Amino acid sequence: MDRKSEVVVINNNTTSSILVAKLLIPNLTDSLVFIDYLDQTHVNSGEVSSIWLPYGNLKNLPASEIAYFYIFNVDSLEKYRSIKKVQGILKASLIRRFSIQLNEVKNQVDTVYVIKPF
After folding, report:
1. pLDDT greater than 90 at residue 35
2. DSSP assignment, residue 65?
3. SS3 of 64, please?
4. How far apart are the C-alpha atoms of 71 and 94, rounded to whole Å?
């Protein structure tokens, strides 16, 4: 049986949908964002969503295990993809980036509030 652990809660307090991409590597490129090859969660305006990772017991992971999260403006992503523009999609669409050291995730996970107007 596969086990998963909740690592963070995203609260979208904006007027637009957002996309939360999660990676286990620190470097995200325009190409990866453009081709939509990301593990992602869509969060509508006003919604709250939990983000999970496929690990059973986070406390047993080494300190080097870090998850990287990127929050994007969906409208901006769609605009760049519709005009087939790869260069600059990351900078134009990224709202926030943060990382979490997985062995330090608490039982009551932290909530990230997205409030930036766009």
Report:
1. no
2. -
3. coil
4. 6
Best CA proximity match to 68, nearest among 45, 49, 56, 51: 51
Name which of 113, 19, 109 is nearest 58 in CA terms. 109
Taking Cα atoms as reference points, which of 95, 89, 92 lies closest to residue 30?
A: 89
pLDDT digits (tens, 9 = 90+) for 63-86: 899 999 999 999 999 999 899 988
Residue pair 17/74 in contact (Cβ under 8 Å)? The answer is yes
Chain-centroid distance, C-alpha 21: 3
**pLDDT tens readout for residues 82-103:** 999 889 999 999 999 999 999 9
- Give the 3-state secondary structure of residue 26: coil
